Write the structure tokens for this entry.
Amino acid sequence: MCGIAGFNWKDNGTIEAMTEVMRLRGPDDRGTYLDDKVSLGHTRLSILDLSPKGHQPMYFQNLAIVFNGEIYNFQEIRSELESVGYKFTSGTDTEVILAAYHRWGDKCVEKFNGMWAFCIYDRDKQTLFLSRDRFGIKPVYYYFDGRRFIFASELKAIRKHYITLETDPAGVNYFFYQKYIGSDLTIYKNCRKLKPSHNILFDLNTKKLSISKHYDLEAEIEKRSEMPVQNRLEMAEEILADAVLKRLIADVPVGSFLSGGVDSSLISAIIAKNKKDFDTFSIGFKDESYNELEFSKIVAEHIKTAHHYEYMDVNEDVIQQVIGEMDEPFGDSSVFPTYLLSKITRQKVTVSLSGDAGDEVFGGYDTYRAYKLAKFIPAPFAGLSRFLVNMIPPSDKKVTLDFKMKRFLRDFDAGCNRRHLNWMATFTEANRKNLLTNGFIPDEQLIPCGSEDSLLSVQLNDIHNYLAEDILKKVDFASMLVSLEARVPYLDYRLVPLVLSLPDKYKIRCLTTKWFLKRIADKYLPRQIVRRTKRGFTVPVSSWIRSSDLIKEFLTGRRYYESGPVNYEQTQQLFNEHVSRQRDNARELWLIFVFNFWQSRQASSA
């Protein structure tokens, strides 16, 4: 894992500053390349070929590259290139990317199985070619004003330039709607994300920027749908095992996160079946409604791994440290346990496999079950139930049944995709309109929803939005804070369209989620692990808000609202209702706290 940066003019001081601010992404090495047309920078976390031969920027004839990620099938591609005369001097995947681009141009990415964000400078054609992997595991941000083109793995690196970055109302609205900033938006105007499965070609002479899509998931699903179902089931099981083993390739120690849930447990079990002396990692919390350590211990004992764990608490120091490092407001509070887990994992290994994306691909979320359930509930019954459920008092415990019921019934009458987004939403559209003092943007303009009514459409909604810019962003951000590379086997590009193409009954059957994945897991894991209730990776935000002086300061201090878009009076009403236990406003208040804290940090560093 690494950090990349660059821009379309020569400036050694600024490219050095950009790489310095991303040093946690690559603490092992640093390099720059400059000529009259470009400046490129790289920070390296050494994973393959730890020798100086892996130094970046790397060169091949007329090409130079800065690369963040891993290509797991690089050895097969290397062999193919060697068969037509290419020579290699290192054992890196970076050199293979360069040669593949030299051979196949922008079509090279279609051959890659992995995660990537890279920029290739073609000195002959005078172009910069950037690419982001199919599902957005690795980030790329860019700034373009028609003349200056700047890119980096982190927004904070772009902030090292003397450019005006104003807050974007669309980014603010997206954050308060979904707790992250999705699509190609960022918190700043003129700064954008390169979307997953997309490329940029920038002409250094004409200053023309072109964006193209290199992977169409929906088309790939359609192709797999033509195969017999039994063939798909057998192939998916084989590919999953191969995807896990492919992600063990490294010249440094590799481990696996192990929460005790079926996703990470299955990955760890597949590894343990094929590799001895393997390390797994988990964390525990003192609050039993949030603690799942007992389940990870059961799995570790069953699959016989060297299991490492600690009981940890998210305190104010951790909150300040993590939010203080954020590029833009990010409201998923599970970033804190993810950071703590990454921290203890990094003590033993440099690479860890993660169970993320299992829910999106195999059908594991409560909203997917709710989609099925909604087919059988008459609208009048939903209306009566909504009235009764709303009378249940709030709880500080982990996501409770009454919370799920309230969310499910609140938007029962909406289309399936809007209902799904609103289930995931923090503020309703009306409440968000009251919260923001200016620049309100309706839900439909932020995330348009089609009329398709299917479980697959809801899964694709998550993969294109929530997975890319919440789940994967969280894992990349939290792991990079401790210079740990996280790998995601469930997002192998051979596996995803194959599983998504399966009929619904292989995803949810009799309201059992991830039916097919659990059938695979039965071969590796104890039944009590495979069949246990999903709990997620969350923290006690409700009680934090009532007890933390830090959070109270940023929620109630009037000065934090003077130059921002958030309504002070509306926030105080939410806060007073919450501390008096009239209503659980924890999720709404948490977003306001994160936004105010982030905004104050940006103002102080400007």
Observations:
- The chain has two domains: 2-215, 218-362+456-530.
- The longest helix spans residues 455-480.
- The CA atoms of residues 284 and 293 lie 5 Å apart.
